[in-house]
Amino acid sequence: MIAPTAIRMVKKGAEASRFHDQETPAASKTCSRGARVLSTIVLLILVYWNVYPVFWHTSQPSSSYANLDSDWDFNVQTRTGAESFPCPGQPNFECTNVIVPKDYLNASAGTSTVAIARLRATAKTSKGTIFLGAGGPGGSGVRMALNGFAEALSAIVNGAFDIVGFDGRGIHLSRPVVQCFPSQFARQTFGLGTILDRGFELPPNPESAEGRAHILQQWGAWRAFYAAQYQICGKKYGEELKYMGTSTVVRDIAHIADIFDGRGSPLNFWGGSYGTIVGAYLVGMFPERAGRVVIDGVVDPNMWGNVPTHKWLQILMTDSENTYEWIIKACVEAGPSACPLTKENGTASNIAERLDDYLNKLYYNPLPITNHSRPGILTSGQARASLFQAVASPSAWPQIARLFAQALDGDPTPLYDLRTRVLELPPRANEMGDLSRSAVSCADAYVTKDGANPEELTATTLELLKLTPRFALTVPSTEPDGACEFWPTQGREPERFAGPWKDTLASPMLVVSPLSDPVTPLSAARTVHSLMPNSTRILIQ
């Protein structure tokens, strides 16, 4: 899932009173000092986010560990925590590959390894380990830790805890990693020029016969491409793919905590976006061991495990248009010098109309792009995905607004460049994974026997357009989940947690949510609170 946004709106006045309404009287009386401390931690880290990039996504490596992948020592493995090596470029961190059971319910299945980066507590005695859960699924917790988040969190807790970032099953440095294509170039060429590359295109009149037919055709192509890449994955990995689910990842956390902190020790966790699913599953599967747990930018865990994937967007996107309207208004308030989409005496509605008109024209007349290392055409699907990128990450809005202003003034090449990746040549082994996200989400998902056919997907899209008329067809490209009926090991996972959640946590879980987010809406945080009203506290930013 997309990250919690780096720009937060802090609640005041009436909104603050609504925050208190989220706590039951009993919860207010029993609110622990630990929960108040975690609230302070959240606020301080959000301040930190205003200076540094958001960490939930797999970011580009910083110069201090640009060679992390190539310098990682896969030969150093540990069952006891004793064996480790200095993390590449970050010698104050300990890195290692923890040997874990491949299947916790079947010892004969063998073992896997989970890559971790650990920042030791600086206090004389560690109070335990805080595990970091990255977004995605597919984001690297190792990178998240090394990219500054672990050091920031350690400073905030006065060095009292070890901080551990880990790569989940099938992801990045953990082994086996899900790398279905032999190279990144092979994966790029697989989807080159297709809906996987150009994105879905939203017809200006989607309810018309022509519009419905095009949406139907696109969903048919999408299902075929997903079925093909899943078949490629199945031929390579076979039954290995069934061990990638979040339930198994949570058991990995408990297993590693047993190694580092002692058997049955408290499980402390911080997760954002998809990491909130890991956190919710952790307190659901191990309520008696839940320690200090924070989830930020929440994905609805009940949806994740109990709702078919083609219906997810109706839950995820409840705030998408509100967030879009907010960034458009911010553009007007910033003025033409900071946001060139704003004309003299321009209004938010004027900007929105101009962007809508541009996207509709692109639908019928894609623009040729020749002054680029990868010549092609700018489609409405690509441009709309770029616009949604700004909705998802408002910190990117100034740059994207400039690109759209250039495109509106006749130079679409910079906008085309934003989502056009240079082909990876010469081809090299894709050792850090490709379909890791699908491996996790399909292991977790509730799947009907035959899934949703193009007609059902089209009907769902038309219904979703009532909620988000601009982006109903965009997120299937930016949030690539679904078609799990084609996943090779679908239904054969050793374990698939889907609730229930016990309202019995010794320390309340802190649930952090922005007022408005395009795919991790406030309603998801409230769902978690409804599942555990006496064991959660909500902090709304």
From TrEMBL:
Keywords of this entry: Hydrolase, Membrane, Transmembrane, Transmembrane helix
Domain Peptidase S33 tripeptidyl aminopeptidase-like C-terminal: 483-538
InterPro entries per the UniProt record, alphabetical: AB_hydrolase_fold (IPR029058), Pept_S33_TAP-like_C (IPR013595), Serine_prot/Carboxylest_S33 (IPR051601)
Pfam families referenced in this protein's UniProt entry, alphabetically: Abhydrolase_4 (PF08386)
Segments crossing the lipid bilayer: 37-56
GO function term, MF aspect, one: hydrolase activity
Family to which this protein belongs: Belongs to the peptidase S33 family.
Protein name: Peptidase S33 tripeptidyl aminopeptidase-like C-terminal domain-containing protein
Source taxonomy: Eukaryota, Fungi, Dikarya, Basidiomycota, Agaricomycotina
